[in-house]
Amino acid sequence: MRSLFVSTIVALAACESEPPAPPPAVAPASAAAPKLIEPSKELSPLVARLRYEANHRPASSVTAERVFDALDRSDIRVTERRQYLGASMRASYCLGGQTGDDIVLAVCEYPTHGAAVAGKAFMDGRFAAMAPGAHREVQDVAVLTVVDPAPRAHPEIVARAFQSFAALPPHATQNNR
Amino acid sequence: MRLTNRLLGGLAAFTTVLVPGAGWASSHREAPFLTKNPKVDGTDLYIFNSFASGRTGYVTILANYLPFQDPQGGPNFFTLDPAALYEIHVDNDGDAREDITFQFRFQTTLAGGSGIQLDVGGKKIAVPYSAVGPLAAGHEDSRNLLETYKLQIVRGRRRDRTVEAVASTSGASTFGKPLDNVGTKTIPDYASYARSFMYDINLPGCTPPRGTHPRVFVGQRKEGFSVNLGQIFDLLHFNTSGIGDVANILGPQYQGFDDLAGKNVTSIALEIPAACLIKDAQHPIIGAWTTASVRQARVINPDPTFERPTHEGGPWAQVSRLGMPLVNEVVIGLKDKDRFNSSEPKDDAQFADYVTNPTLPAVAELLFGGAGVVAPRRFPRTDLVAAFLTGIPGVNANGSTAEMVRLNTAIAATPADHQNSYGAALCFDPATAKLDAKLNVNHAGCDPAGFPNGRRPGDDVVDIELRVAMGYLLNTTDAPAGQLPYVDGAGISQSAFDTTFPYLKDPRPGAPQMPKPGDPQ
Questions:
Q1: What is the residue-wise DSSP string for B359-412?
Q2: Which of A81, A146, A150, B325 could make a disulfide contact with B26, Cβ separation 3.0–4.6 Å?
Q3: pTM metric for this prediction
Q4: Across the interface, do B372 and A125 touch by the CB < 8 Å criterion?
Q5: Chain B (472-491) residues lying within 8 Å, Cβ to Cβ, of chain A
Q6: A42 and B480 in contact by Cβ < 8 A?
């Protein structure tokens, strides 16, 4: 046994330049379609949670997309819309982005108007330091956050953003997701 | 759809920095391979101008290995791997290649070859203990488990050049390593016992300042790194309120969340004259990193003995690499962590994207973006390149673009009681930022002898790197939330350490166990 042991060492040492073995093949799935499992709301990883939030948005007409479309029509355009974690804001779903003027815009959707009011208060209280200069308003179940990159650098744009937001009909039947 | 009450409760204090697949310990269990091989897991590298009295002109290097040592973790405590090669590398000409390497090889033996035996009913029976009676400085007759090491120095490429043995000033080329602090009954005075394993050495090719000698010590120490590890691992953590049982990410530096407070670590400590590390007086900046290597082939011995549970063969394969803290944890992606550990600084261009386009701030924005928090928008992140890969211009940049700890040995050490745990990071004016600005030593709190100019035990590298990652070195347009005083709630400062070599405190004893911070009194 010992001679085999030693010869194995020699063989292993001599094989240093061999390419690594390919990973083992994954066992084939059964013919039946896999059952989709909804991730645990408490423990789901971040990506799964983002997907969960995207698929479980409140039934409301004031959606994040409608808000950003309205802002577009007011010449306030974010260069790229990004989904953010809603749970961090006690929200069901959040979407945001930045304009070419570095103005930060974010819309969070809540289950109810009351939850949105509470969510605004939560963000105002907890994020005063992390998002300095942020202003927020509530419309129906949505909270719009606007952050001017420097204090009152773009007051007209900020004001126009909130005007467009306030003009959104809260109870329209259109769902523009 | 409504979130559950449980989730809302968990988020009430809430919010998070999420680091997928990563830990914030400086380099504890950061790569998949090392989780299976903790003895070669390099955890922290400290390198700084010695600030102990009478040691001006010396540089202290502390290379820590083998993380998460529970003091009571017997009967096999925390010996280093006899089959491994532990190395400390120094680049002194800015080419990202080692010019000086200190090599350590360890050996573990049993007393008398087969260990101490007791006469039990007429039979000699080997004991399971590391020692069978009290140990003290110079008195180790009852020590059962012995650990020694040899130290060598290589000048030039570590595998191509001649290796020279380092001996103590008494001429011995084999050094002893103290038994770990198994408890106060076995080692009543661990401090004096451990000190007896500190050696003055003669370093080939090095003339030390008159009346002094370089030093070496290897042994268990109290873990010096401080980090709020658990909350970051657990996905949902920092709040901004200070309410609840999680740390406030914008709160005080000290919030009692040091998850390593009860642990020990094994430290390889050197104190070398700066003049013997630098290229010449015109090039006072050195870069350093540590590695551990094992033989490429390892076969489990089916008939194991104490001396030979496995057989190793083949060339060395580097499996651990450590320079700047947190790099392989927070910056390098999970798929490349083992590859990073096997790499050399000269080849770091392969990892550049991780630095220029880091994921951590993007994840932070993902979590906080709904409130208008944005990650730095300036790409590539040249500020992080300076912090991690080139050194800060005017402070410790040495011409190379590679990940290592850089120390400007010409910047005088700050006395222990004047050190600022935010180190050189406070030498820049946060209102004007700054990489292209000169070091402002008059800035409030500025301590140019601290991290990222080298790294001292008392430097709060977690807070510093968190702030730098979020844009501390950028202007407010590029990083609107970059000037906030982010913390992890596990503060650290020089007051937690000794003021003499090897600076890290004596390890916590296995028995009786000391209360940890937060334990009920």
A1: HHHHHHHHHHGGGT------SS-HHHIIIIII--TTTT--S--S-SEEEETTSP
A2: B325
A3: 0.81
A4: no
A5: 476-477, 480-481, 484
A6: no
